[in-house]
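Per-record layout

source: Skermanella aerolata
name: ATP-dependent zinc metalloprotease FtsH
length: 628
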Amino acid sequence: MNGKGMMTGRALFLLWLALFLMSVAFVMLWSRGAQQVATIPYSEFQELLRQGRIQQVVVGEHDLHGDLVEPLPSGARQFRTIRVDGDVAADLEARHVPFSGEVGSGGIAQVLTWISWIVLLSIMWMIGTGGLAGRAGGGLLSIGRSKARIFAETEIKTGFNDVAGVDEAKIELQEIVEFLKNPQEFTRLGAHVPKGVLLVGPPGTGKTLLARAVAGEARVPFFSTNGPEFVEMFVGVGAARVRDLFAQARSRAPAIIFIDELDALGRARGAYPMMGGHDEKEQTLNQLLAELDGFDPSVGLVLLAATNRPEILDPALLRAGRFDRQVLVDRPEKAGRTEILGLHARKVLLDPGVDLDRLAALTPGFTGADLANLVNEAAMVATRRHAKSIAMEDFEAAIERIVAGLEKKTRILTPHERSIVAHHEMGHALVALAIPGCDPVQKVSIIPRGIGALGYTIQRPTEDRFLMGRHELENKMAVLMAGRAAEQLIFGELSTGAADDLAKVTDIARGMVMRYGMDETLGSVSYDTEPGRFLGQPEGAFWQHRRYSEASADSIDNAVRGLIDAAAHRAFAILRQNRDKLEQGAKALLEKEALTADELPKPQAEPVKAELTPVAGDERGGGRRALP
Ligand SMILES: Nc1ncnc2c1ncn2[C@@H]1O[C@H](COP(=O)(O)OP(=O)(O)OP(=O)(O)O)[C@@H](O)[C@H]1O
Ligand SMILES: [Zn+2]
């Protein structure tokens, strides 16, 4: 989507360049034409007049100019001269040269040159503010207004009922609705209202729809625009647009401002290096920050923005008092998909035999937009076969077509792959539940999230932690290894799905051995590496300086490996003991795609092993080696 912003920016730049060159050529030709006018001394004029070489004359207040019968040796066909005596008219009359009078002329060519410059400059300025190329439909004449496309809508009919499958997001946004309905009351009691809310989620999950629904529910005007619209090559233009957007919204507060594709502002850095795009981007961003900092919350203005790449946003945007709240708008799970299908199916004629629940089961990974598209496609298939209503087969045909298209974009898993992911995630969850003292599991899901992650398990710590004991780290490692252990237990084979888990587990294990002195044989030594600088090399050319012997390096590798193996064995043992729960949980997960804490099976708690309790005399608490 940002590509679009860059494209318009680049196209505008080329248009600007072309117009500029054309204008320069035009002005140069013009002044060459103007050089066709020879400025001659008055005496020469009198001479030419006497010789009958003057065709006609325009008599001005201070000067004379006119056409010659034949060009001068210099090529000039016209002349200009300063009047010296009073009675030219009589002379001209006597020689039968036609003449006319003119008041205060400064030379028509000069005037025209000036006009062309003015036209040129205003064209350039208008392009700068986006007035040309139909960007705003405002046209050439509306000089002086900002041209970002801002859509202002007052009576929005969309409500929360039109958005389905995103209940958590709705709950979070309900507060904004309450606030917008009565901003003074809210702020009078000192409640903190976020100024900016960032809707984060993949494309087509209904972020724009949700933002509109908030405006519709609160019955406030909705000002919406697109991030790329602010990315311009002229310094200050984007900033002016931001100012304009907020000014418009403020004058109609309480109101909602919605910026789609906010990341365009954060990603534009360096897009136009030769045009100083860097400065422009920063100015625009700074203006946005200033507007966010500047407004008084009690006026009732809320900025909603959408992005599917929160990680590339400028961190300054996410600071307190700005976009300090993020609302996740994720792909819907099965129940959500049924609801969304229901919403869109209301607008078409359905055959009574259509089972929305089954359709939802057939469409894992579909977003709201995909589902809206599905209903549409099915209607088209039905139309083509001249049916009275849309039947299940129409949907099935439409799904096949859409899936083929989607597979290119986001990979849809095969049933076997889904089963692996379900057991993997259930493995994480069960081991976390079985180990006493682990962070509670909140949610397990096999809905692909972002790029790469095929499923996820969310554990939320009960309290903020700054220190972690050795046992906690070991527990964490066992939970991380549990996904892979489950795959091994059920399928007898390892898959590539655990790479991220392994990377995390290795980080923890290396930390324990090298930084926290938690390995008995290596002792309480920090085996951290130290960055060194090459002498005479520019800054930034670092190398890692290893401050330990080759022998220690071997021991470190062995110790790290030992910790990870122990964690893997532990996870495997827990899962083997709870195999029925694992299979039962994975089945439920395949069915519902996401399970919350109370829907998870309850595994047997891991027996507290004597070896895990600290051994007298060893303050660090030993026992790692005693693990299976
Ligand atoms: N949760 C949903 N409930 C009902 N309809 C939905 C939902 N999500 C998406 N849709 C349908 O898909 C269309 C597109 O959704 P929308 O533009 O809001 O997605 P988005 O998340 O803003 O996408 P993008 O990031 O591409 O802008 C909506 O107009 C609606 O018809
Ligand atoms: Zn995992």
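summary: The chain is about 45% helix and 10% strand. The chain has four domains: 2-110, 151-328, 334-409, 415-626.
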